[in-house]
Design a protein that fits this description.
The protein has 174 residues and is mainly α. It has nine helices and no strands. The radius of gyration is 36 Å and the shape is rod-shaped.
Amino acid sequence: MAAGRSAATKIDWAHLSTSLGLKGHTAASLQAFKKRNDDARRKVAALKAQPTSVDFSRYRSTLNNTAVVDEIEGFVKSWKPVTYDVGRQVKAIEAFEAQAVRSAEETRGRVDKEVGALESTLRNIEEARPFEDLTVDEVAAAEPEIDKRTEQLVSKGRWQVPGYKEKFGDLSVI
């Protein structure tokens, strides 16, 4: 158990979520687990700080009825701590761990897909010809929506793109 306690105290919670890049439900679950861990540590520390021995001789000298003190001392000496079945808590921790692993695997899968898409996009960008080398036909073939929108504007008698003057200014004075 001492090894478990020393390992638990060495966890750098802030570094853990940032280094693993945890987000969403996984990060929230980890924070909730950290809070429960901290609360349990505080309770254990508070209980350890409380005195555990009783000076019955002092009570015998102070109280007139020493029979009560003798009876209480007998109860204290015969008292045995209650052992709890922690199986339920262990199962809850194992379920949390399993859910965390599933969430991590799902996150890993999504991240791997996104990285693959980004690498593909980066390759396309690196292999693409410079914009100034493209022809109007090539741009229209790559994005047919541009051709459709241009046809719409021309059919309505509009020869300028809406918002162009506001964004780039009027070049007719040149």
